[in-house]
Amino acid sequence: MASWDRCSPSRLAARREVAVRAQVVDWIGPFSPFWRERFSALGRTPRQVASVSSLERLPAVGERDVCPDGDPAGAAALVLQTQERGYALHAEGPALRRALWRRAVSRRSYRDLIEAETRPTSYVYAGQALRFPVASTRSDLDIVARVGARLWKVLGLRRSDVVVSALRADATALVSGLSLAALGAGSPMFVPGEDVEALLDTLRIAEPTVLVVPATGGAALLRRLAGAGAAVASLTTVLVAGPPNEQERVEIDEVLGSALGSRALTLAVHVPDGHRLVWGECRDSAGRTGLHTYPDLELVDLVDPETGEFSEDERPGEVVVTQLGMRGSALLRWRTGDLASYVDERPCPGCRRTVPRVVELRGSALVPELALRTGLRPVDLRAVASALSGRPDVSDWRVVLGSSARDGSEEFLVHVLPPPQEVPADVAVAVTRDLRMATGLLPSQVIVAADGSLPSGEGLSPRLLVDP
Predict the structure, then answer these.
(1) Domain of 273: which CATH number?
(2) From start to end of 108-203, where are the E strands?
(3) Are residues 86 and 146 in the same domain?
(4) Domain end among 71, 90, 119
(5) 112-149 residue pLDDT tens
(6) Are 204 and 340 within one domain?
(7) For residue 408, what pLDDT band results from cuts at 50, 70 and 90?
């Protein structure tokens, strides 16, 4: 059988169809409370969406769909709730035969095997407008570790590489994924965190070849290390977790070269929000061909950032992920909040791997954190678009993110165009109320377009604008 990263398009398509059917029909359909309810509301059965093409037409969901009242407890409905009888009905053939053999020997051993496949044992936090736990089973963690070994090959790393992480030791999928990746690849990893003194001690003792830094603040951290005389002569790779935007990447490269005198290659690593698998840029292309994904374990595509639905437009879209083979929290058509220009299905020009690559990704672009007058707050633009679209009292709308001319604080402005028969003041009040319910946040101002015109310009989408 062809390797995961060398499959022909036809073989990859066949493997994906089998994986999608197993995930939707045998696991998500019968065992996810959220998806049982959602399939019923959409008037579909799991079998009707159990192919790659039909899955693409399924409306994507995000954290506000799962937790509409803002209570993170709603995320429990994503976790597959499997029991012994259900496992026997839906498990794959080899796994079921192994379980039944265990049951013939010892019922306790049988239960232990099922728990290893289905019982959540580990949690990381996700969410951008609200935080919620994502559950993993032991088998899920095995998958993340095995994918980590693949990631090492994409990054051009080896077992002999020594990794030091300067990321905060938070319970996030990225921190957990990199730790499991090092474990799966057999590489030593030190996690002193972002404290400069602890980093300096670790760099001196470990002589690392790989340093992990955050995209935001990564250049400043490297400057502090340079000022303190950090020992980085052994470095060959700097992994930037974020991923970085172009300015952040340039700044990190400049500090590495000028302040630290290092020729280490900078490569991005990233876990989309809610997901658990770490994507990375390949060493052979020096990171220029996008983030490499794992086609046998996930489906990645783009949707309209305003509606969350499939779109054939060529403009940038929101990245949505479907996990395959995972048994904890079931993420199907999950909206990540990331924007990307496109998903390239062609072989990578650098490493020649036949895996989809997410190109020009902007992390959390649809849930920006704004310094509003009320403080630093994330604004979920997807929830804003959902609250404004399809309203009978609003013919058209625009959202503008910009800076106040009065005090320089960031603003979240909503422009609405009501039909002629509507009272403008009533529309403004209703829109403000609904936006607060949808996002947990009041807009800086709701502006009714009295002259019938709405703002225009560059933005994240035609109606989500950014004021330069």
Answers:
(1) 3.40.50.12780
(2) 120-126, 132-137, 163-165, 189-190
(3) no
(4) 119
(5) 666 666 788 899 999 988 899 999 998 899 999 999 99
(6) yes
(7) confident
Distance (Å, whole) CA 152 – CA 193: 21
Q: Examine residue 42 and state whether it is found in any structural domain, yes or no.
A: yes
The residues, any chain, with a CB within 8 Å of residue 465's CB and separated by 6 or more, are 398, 399, 400, 401, 455, 456, 457, 458, 459
CB 306 within 8 A of CB 177: no
The rounded distance, in Å, linking the Cα atoms of 379 and 369 is 6
Distance of CA 184 to the CA centre of its chain: 21
354 and 373 together in one domain = no
What's the pLDDT score for residue 90?
46
139 inside domain: yes
Q: Which two tokens mark 384? A: 């804003």
Instruction: Copy the structure tokens of residue 88.
Output: 């026997």
Domain extent at residue 416: 369-466
Secondary structure element (H or E) that encloses residue 435, with its range: helix 424-439
Domain check: are 196 and 338 in the same one? yes
Q: In this structure, how many other beta carbons lie within 10 angstroms of the beta carbon of residue 287?
A: 21
With respect to residue 125, please indicate whether it lies within any of the assigned structural domains: no
Question: Total structural domains in the chain?
Answer: 3
pLDDT digits (tens, 9 = 90+) for 289-348: 999 999 999 999 999 999 888 877 777 999 999 999 998 999 999 999 999 999 999 999
Beta-bridge partners for 143: none
Residues 196 and 239 in one domain: yes
CB atoms within 10 A of CB 256: 23
Domain end (from 93, 119, 145): 119
Residues 91, 151 share a domain? no
128 inside domain = no
- Per-residue tokens: 184: 């799966």
pLDDT in tens, 176-230: 999 999 999 999 999 999 999 999 999 999 999 999 999 999 999 999 999 999 9
CA neighbor of 293 nearest in space, from 11, 16, 14, 2: 16
The Cα 323–Cα 151 span in angstroms is: 17
The residues, any chain, with a CB within 8 Å of residue 318's CB and separated by 6 or more, are: 60, 302, 303, 304, 305, 308, 335, 336, 337, 338, 339, 366, 382
